[in-house]
Design a protein that fits this description.
8 strands, 12 helices, alpha/beta, TIM Barrel, 296 residues, eight-stranded parallel barrel
Length: 296
């Protein structure tokens, strides 16, 4: 199995669409190179921020393949491959593996809400079927089910190939308990931009981030400052970027971040249903925030 070092800032990158709704590969190229040139530590494609659920299998493979080729090994490229159907999760994992990714992000099954025993079996099946490192993604706000620390720790211990958790419960105590109880070598990544600084204070290794779509250089510096113990600089960057971190979730992600990237002239503000552009009443707030950071 490929060894994968996960630390620092990894961008959960958006998937740009043209006005007609097709994948905008020229814009995607610009986004990917902007990230790598800014010093980002990894790219996560086809996650929830990348609207992967609206891509068909051909598009899913094409987006991943394009990202892997464009990044060219400069940083790790990881693909979201989650499903609440274990067989489908394995199928997506194999598609992603065939495109050359070095790791997979698997959200915990939503809607059917498996028990801890079911979660262990789900992740064992995936890791047995696909020889790539897997990151467990716990995001109760989207799945409707919170994976408790004892279950994350159990999965970390019982499932070979499970190397990390993207913890997006919003509960700093839960992050603390996972860090405290996880086996050696298991990585904890924040799944909430706004909790990255406190999570790294507790021993998290970084973040799979939304805000780094907009500010890859500064968010990378925040994480790298924390990793080297420069907490004064990390805190200053955290406080500077916090308003943008917050406004990115004024509506469902990725509505605000795509609107921001559109305002910055990087992509079209285009979505696939059931997502639609963010409400006009919120756009002045986003624009003001971007202006305050010198992004417009």
């Amino acid at each position: 199995m490929t060894k994968l070092l996960l630390q620092g800032a990894l961008t959960a990158i958006v998937t740009p669409f043209t006005k007609s709704g097709a994948v905008d590969f020229p814009a995607f190229r610009k986004l990917l190179n902007r990230q790598v040139n800014a010093g980002i530590n990894g790219i996560v494609v086809c996650g929830s921020t990348g609207e992967a659920v609206t891509l068909n299998d051909k598009e899913y493979a094409a987006v991943i393949k394009f990202a892997v080729k464009e990044v060219g090994g400069r940083v790790p490229v990881i693909a979201g491959a989650g499903s609440n159907n274990t067989a489908r999760a394995i199928e997506l994992s194999k598609i992603a593996q065939a495109q050359g990714v070095v790791g997979l992000l698997h959200v915990t099954p939503f809607y059917n809400k498996p028990t801890p025993n079911g979660l262990v079996a789900h992740y064992k099946a995936i890791c047995n079927a696909v020889p790539l490192p897997v990151i467990l993604y716990n995001v109760p706000g989207r799945t409707g089910s919170n994976v408790l620390p004892e279950t994350v720790i159990r999965i970390a211990k019982e499932v070979p190939g499970m190397i990390a958790v993207k913890e997006a419960s919003g509960n700093i105590s839960q992050i603390r308990d996972i860090i405290k109880g996880a086996p050696r070598g298991f990585t904890v990544l924040s799944g909430d931009d706004a909790l990255t600084y406190p999570a790294m204070k507790l021993g998290a290794s970084g973040c799979i981030s939304v805000v780094s779509n907009e500010v890859p250089e500064e968010f990378t510096e925040l994480c790298q400052s924390a990793l080297r113990g420069d907490w004064k600089r990390a805190r200053a960057l955290h406080l500077r970027l916090l308003p943008l971190m917050d406004i990115n979730f004024i509506e469902s992600n990725p509505l605000p971040v795509k609107a921001a990237l559109s305002m910055m002239g990087l992509i079209e503000e285009s979505f696939r249903l059931p997502l639609v552009p963010m409400e006009s009443r919120n756009k002045p707030k986003l624009k003001k925030c971007l202006q305050s950071l010198g992004l417009l």
